[in-house]
Structure formats: structure tokens, C-alpha cells
Amino acid sequence: MAGGQHAETLPPHVYAIADAAYRAMSNPAGPDVPRNQSVLISGESGAGKTETTKIIMNYLARISNSTTGRVSAMEDVAPVARKVLMSNP
């Protein structure tokens, strides 16, 4: 429950969406069957799409580092996020 409401009745939250994508990707259907994931971020001009994308990339970089046992320092995350941002035309 969040703020007296069940999570299912609340609008999607950026961290919940990112976590769901990561969990689905890291729990494949079977051996040697990776599951690709994508997150579509849409909205009107000024709605925060770019910032939301940065939040998701940062979260995914941090959680993937933490599951490998590495300490997730910002200097580890920044190069990953920078590479992904540079891949976007």
C-alpha cells in the first residue's frame, strides 16, 4: 500500500516499471533463453520523458551492478548511462 492505496490502483511509477523490466529480463523462460525487454516512454512536450529515461538507465545500471556483487558507485554507472545516451540519435 502506498498512501492508503494498493499499488495496483496507482499510476505506473518509474522505478516499478524499471524493476519489472529488469526482473523479467534477468529471469529467462529457460536455460539459454534470454528475455529482451524494452520500456516505451511517451508523453507531451515537457512531460519529463528525458528525465524519466535517465532515471531508468541509472536504476538499471545500479541494480545490474549490485546483482553482480560490485559496489555501485556513481563512477561505475556514469559510463554506462553515457554510452546509452550517446546511442540515441
Can you walk me through this structure?
The structure is a single chain. The chain is mainly α and 89 residues long. The chain is 52% helix and 0% strand. The protein has 3 helices and no strands. It has helices at residues 14-26, 49-67, 74-87. Helix 1 packs across helix 2 (49-67) and helix 2 crosses helix 3 (74-87).
Q: Topology, please?
A:
Layout: H1 14-26, H2 49-67, H3 74-87
Helix pairs in contact: 1-2, 2-3
Summarize the structure.
By secondary structure, this protein is mainly α.
Labels describing this entry:
single chain; 89 residues; mainly alpha; 3 helices; 52% helix
Share of helix among residues?
40-55%
Largest sheet: none
Low-confidence stretches: none
**Number of DSSP helices?**
3
Distance between the termini: 39 Å
